[in-house]
């Protein structure tokens, strides 16, 4: 597999995807046209144009999966980029368009898959560790399962002195682990996971990520961390 799973597509003071140009060029080496899946936002044309502009400096053309039969366009794609937005909306759409099995098959064959935010969420076995509001109701929470663990993009640490009285992100993930036996990687902003077949590494900014496992203390992850062992774990949900 050739996967790039980003927490986010922007960084402070930089243009869209600029913080990830180097790793994008690596993942998309030899690719000329990227099929962009815009279904996490409502305005598909505008969203696709934004990413068309962002990928142009890398010499890449972009075609929106909504501009024809999404199943055919994804099936024929050189590479697929699934953008962020609302994960519930995205999951509902990819199931309705029959994209789950197609993406699984194509990534097994080596097609590059890039996700950002919601697009990263759906690379996991389920969408249950999303931060999003359920604005629509998918038929299932099951997603692509390109990795056998969960991701929480946009992971944030508690701010000292914060007056917010709800659960922290860490507390919510620990509640998830009370019901599910599966690793969760919290990706802080500006970070990503890079999978090349059986190798998985954390990349991006110095802030790194945070690893959660049932029965273990959460652990911080530094950029460059080798997480390949997570690919060997068999997740158990509702357990």
From TrEMBL:
Top-rank taxon, per record: Bacteria
One GO cellular component, as annotated: cytoplasm
Keyword hit for Transport: no
EC number: 3.4.13.21
Entry protein name: dipeptidase E
Coiled-coil region list: none
Catalytic activity: Dipeptidase E catalyzes the hydrolysis of dipeptides Asp-|-Xaa. It does not act on peptides with N-terminal Glu, Asn or Gln, nor does it cleave isoaspartyl peptides
Family: Belongs to the peptidase S51 family.
Listed GO MF terms: dipeptidase activity; serine-type peptidase activity
Protein's GO biological process: proteolysis
Gene name per UniProt: pepE
Subcellular location: Cytoplasm
Keywords (A to Z) from UniProt: Cytoplasm, Dipeptidase, Hydrolase, Protease, Serine protease
């Amino acid at each position: 597999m050739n996967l790039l799973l980003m927490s986010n597509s922007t960084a402070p003071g930089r243009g869209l995807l600029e913080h990830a140009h180097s790793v994008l060029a690596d993942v998309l080496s030899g690719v000329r046209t990227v099929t962009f899946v815009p279904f996490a936002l409502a305005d598909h044309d505008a969203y696709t144009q934004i990413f068309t502009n962002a990928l142009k400096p890398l010499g890449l053309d972009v075609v929106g999966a909504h501009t024809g039969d999404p199943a055919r366009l994804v099936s024929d794609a050189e590479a697929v980029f699934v953008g962020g937005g609302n994960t519930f909306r995205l999951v509902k759409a990819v199931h309705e368009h029959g994209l789950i099995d197609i993406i699984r098959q194509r990534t097994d064959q080596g097609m590059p898959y890039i996700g950002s935010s919601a697009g990263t969420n759906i690379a996991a076995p389920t969408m249950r560790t999303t931060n999003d509001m359920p604005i629509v109701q998918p038929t299932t929470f099951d997603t692509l399962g390109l990795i056998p663990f969960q991701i929480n993009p946009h992971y944030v640490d508690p701010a000292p002195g914060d007056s917010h009285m709800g659960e922290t992100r860490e507390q919510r993930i620990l509640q998830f682990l009370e019901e599910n036996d599966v690793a969760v990687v919290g990706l802080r902003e500006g970070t990503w996971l890079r999978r090349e077949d059986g190798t998985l590494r954390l990349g991006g900014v110095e802030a790194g990520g945070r690893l959660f496992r049932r029965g273990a203390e959460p652990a911080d992850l530094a950029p460059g961390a080798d997480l390949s062992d997570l690919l060997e774990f068999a997740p158990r949900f509702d357990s």
